[in-house]
Write a structure and sequence with these properties.
The protein has 246 residues and is mainly beta. It has 2 helices and 22 strands. β7 and β8 form a beta hairpin. The longest helix is centred in the N-terminal third of the chain and has 4 residues.
Length: 246
């Protein structure tokens, strides 16, 4: 029986070998991305006379695309007394690739060893379950209050009352709006408006396109329809269409 293929997203992750410099006293310096080696690293390890011959920034070791390199000096300035890689003078020769076990000598007297782990791959492929993102489109009505440039988006139901206009109308005008003045709702992908709520009409009425709809039941809405609450709040249906819902 054939095995069923899994839907996975593959991500290539660049890694790098663990890299250290083994100092003359056996201590390790982790290279990570870049490491500068200079006089201060040897002041407590070698004699003062030898340390004085090591430059402040004697050499640089760094990682590039998963490989490690060494260069004498720093920022284009060579060390005073040179660097040897496996007995070869590299002063002035630019970057040199490093391998595990390479021996580096500073001033041809102080030896350090390059330690690169061999068990970490340079690239790994990480498999993750593939998730298909679904875009959901729903019928949406956009309602616009022209006086205040205020917008509502309706996908299922919207009830507009005095509390919804608390920060938008002065108190004396807000008193004319009922607690649940109108209801706008979707039915079979079409949008409708009705005055009041649950059979109870608003106190001061609602008009649609200039016609009174109080006690007239649901009224079909179209783009550019104008709804007026209590003769003071004018709402306009700006758009009816399919919109993406998160």
């Amino acid at each position: 029986m054939k095995s069923k293929k899994r839907n996975v997203a593959k991500t290539v992750v660049m890694t790098q070998p663990e890299a250290n410099i083994v100092m003359p006293d056996g201590t390790l310096k982790n290279i990570k991305n870049e490491l500068l080696i200079g006089r201060k690293d040897f002041e407590d390890i070698v004699s003062h006379e030898i340390a004085a011959k090591i430059s402040v920034n004697h050499l640089r070791v760094w990682c590039e695309n998963g490989e490690y390199y060494i260069e004498d000096g720093y920022l284009g300035k060579s060390s005073t007394n040179g660097t040897f890689l496996n007995e070869k003078q590299i002063k002035g020769l630019g970057p040199q690739k490093l391998n595990n076990g390479d021996v580096v000598k500073l001033v041809n007297k102080v030896s350090i060893t390059i330690q690169l782990s061999q068990d970490i791959p340079k690239t790994v492929v990480v498999e993750k379950p593939f998730t298909l993102k679904t875009t959901i489109l729903k019928p949406t009505l956009t309602l616009f209050w022209d006086d205040r440039k205020y917008t509502w988006k309706v996908t299922d139901e919207l009830i507009v009352g005095k509390e919804d206009l608390y920060d938008l109308l002065l108190e004396e005008k807000r008193k004319l709006i009922s607690a649940k003045h109108i209801r706008i709702f979707k039915e079979d992908s079409e949008f409708y408006v009705e005055d009041g709520y649950m059979g109870k009409p608003s106190t001061n009425g609602t008009t649609l396109q200039g016609a009174e709809i109080t006690n007239q039941g649901k009224q079909h809405l179209k783009e550019n329809d104008e709804i007026v609450l209590a003769g003071i709040v004018k709402l306009e249906v700006k758009k009816i269409g399919m919109e993406q819902i998160d």
